[in-house]
From TrEMBL:
Catalytic activity: N(6)-(1,2-dicarboxyethyl)-AMP = fumarate + AMP; (2S)-2-[5-amino-1-(5-phospho-beta-D-ribosyl)imidazole-4-carboxamido]succinate = 5-amino-1-(5-phospho-beta-D-ribosyl)imidazole-4-carboxamide + fumarate
Gene Ontology MF terms in the entry: N6-(1,2-dicarboxyethyl)AMP AMP-lyase (fumarate-forming) activity
Protein name: Adenylosuccinate lyase
Superkingdom of source: Bacteria
NCBIfam families in the cross-refs: PRK09285.1, purB
Keywords per UniProt: Lyase, Purine biosynthesis
Entry EC number(s): 4.3.2.2
InterPro entries linked to this entry: Fumarase/histidase_N, Fumarate_lyase_CS, Fumarate_lyase_fam, Fumarate_lyase_N, L-Aspartase-like, Pur_lyase, PurB_bact, PurB_C
Source organism of the structure: Sediminivirga luteola
Domain Adenylosuccinate lyase PurB C-terminal: 340-460
Kinase among keywords: no
GO biological process: 'de novo' AMP biosynthetic process; 'de novo' IMP biosynthetic process
Chain's role: Catalyzes two reactions in de novo purine nucleotide biosynthesis. Catalyzes the breakdown of 5-aminoimidazole- (N-succinylocarboxamide) ribotide (SAICAR or 2-[5-amino-1-(5-phospho-beta-D-ribosyl)imidazole-4-carboxamido]succinate) to 5-aminoimidazole-4-carboxamide ribotide (AICAR or 5-amino-1-(5-phospho-beta-D-ribosyl)imidazole-4-carboxamide) and fumarate, and of adenylosuccinate (ADS or N(6)-(1,2-dicarboxyethyl)-AMP) to adenosine monophosphate (AMP) and fumarate.
Assigned protein family: Belongs to the lyase 1 family. Adenylosuccinate lyase subfamily.
Amino acid sequence: MTEFPPRTALADLQPALALGPLDGRYRKDVAPLVDHLSEAALNRERMHVEVEWLIFLSENEVVPGARRLLEDEKAQLRELVSGFDEETIAQLAEFEAVTVHDVKAVEYAVKAGLGRIGGDDVSELVHFACTSEDINNTSYALMVKGAVEQVWLPAARRLVEQLRDLAAEHRDQPMLSHTHGQPATPTTLGKEIGVFAHRLGRQLRRIERTEYLGKINGATGTFSAHATAVPGADWPALAKAFVEHLGLTYNPLTTQIESHDWQAELYADIARFNRILHNLATDVWTYISMNYFIQIPVEGATGSSTMPHKINPIRFENAEANLEISSALFDTLASTLVTSRLQRDLTDSSSQRNIGPAFGHSLLAISNVSRGLSRLAVNAEALDADLEGNWEVLGEAVQSVMRAAGAAGVPGMDNPYEKLKELTRGKRVDAEGLREFVRGLGLPAEAEARLLELTPQSYTGLASRVVGETLGLD
């Protein structure tokens, strides 16, 4: 066996190399999520919750004898959050090296900030009566809420709007359908795109209605420390007011942890959106392979390393892979987070650190589908040729007109399905052959004329109207 020279340890290189593609190859596509779902974002939200809890207790004079914070002190405390930067991250790392506890490190960092502004006399109100999960559950809720509302939803809405525009543009473009992969009743290209705009839009409306729940009720959800330290306070009412102050929905009854059911609901909805988008990607890929779409070349790009003629549908293939990874992560999160042994275990702590990658792969897929759609042109000639080569699809129309005529008492209209089956099944029928068949049926003149004028290109029914009304195009 050949002995090769030892290699440089890539793990030792600086700046540090990313292990995963989201922080490496695809960083620019998912970077906005870093503000919401990174480890630094988690610590920033923890600091936000700790600061706001301290200010809330002060403003409401919850703890008897504790002085109220001055307005300037509150402003400077909030600057700990608004100015959260590399220096803060380094400070937190130093505290955590001592505490070996990430939430406790945040508590100490807030106390240190309070001390710098002369607030040592109220420092014990930082993290007052809280368990770590009081801080964590509200922080994660704020993180996910921000990621969904400020990053993921805007990108998803833009994609749905792009599909809606394509549906409007091509609502009247006839296209042969392929049910079971076989030629079937014609549709329009815009109607088929409109189906996905409608399906994805429904999922977005569900996601937009998400409730982001939070709790702040102590070590086992009983307010025990709260009620013992300050028995005169209405702690459930205060907790509700504080959670709502953060912009969240209050969960009044929990164990040590907020139950995460809202997360499972949200992730199921996003996974469903992913899977519908995956369906779109596979359909568009297929239409490209059928030559219904032409891919617009990107100058200088290579499709195949050996076949220079190729333009591969890589945007849609990339999207498929990322949607599958995202959905798998969301499925795992949704199934794992709803379960906690008795009053608390830490499976959720590790699981929730993968929320960012789940959103990241979905966001990357949305970007790829959008970019792929923008590089497509409709091949009207191929669409027309496919329709013209499949006149037998009008057999459905002929037998339906015969059924209606027979129901109206026109003689000779018996067994219409069987007659068309004999004419068309497994056979190619051209325009003249079908018209000759129609002329020999004995239909009323108006019905016969209607069928004789019909072509595969015109047999699209109410497709244009349906997509227009459903998507509000008219």
